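Quick one: structure for this chain?
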Amino acid sequence: MARRGGAARLVTGNPLGGMLRDLNRQTRRTTRRSGAPRPVPPEGGGSVAVSGPVVLPPLPGAAPYAAVVVTGEDGRARWTYPAPLPAPPVLTALPVDPDPGDEDTVVTAVLEVATATEAVVRVWRTRPRRGAGVAAPAGEGVHVHLTAVPPGR
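Got it. Here's what it folds into:
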């Protein structure tokens, strides 16, 4: 025997039933209530197609810099930019795990200093432990991939 309606109709007076009913209505709605505006199609109809990432035009004298730096004994990687920047840049630091087979250890890079002329990143080796994790400086020989993008790009 067929039954009309769903779980939202069967639970009368229950707030969860009302929430399920409203959620069901919202998923079937064809118009948007809020959010980002939709792109306007070009003249003559058709659709707007976005292809590939957006690339910003280069600014004179403010190109993004990139380098691979190796940590010292204290786990710090120091990088002096090829040319001074007008202000401290936006930095990314990605450490390369020297022992990727060891699943108990994670390598993390932390930015310590960022100026218009240099950056200092410290690499930590963390190991999970019941109750509390253990963190120690990574030591010598960890490669860190660094990128510096001048502000305003």
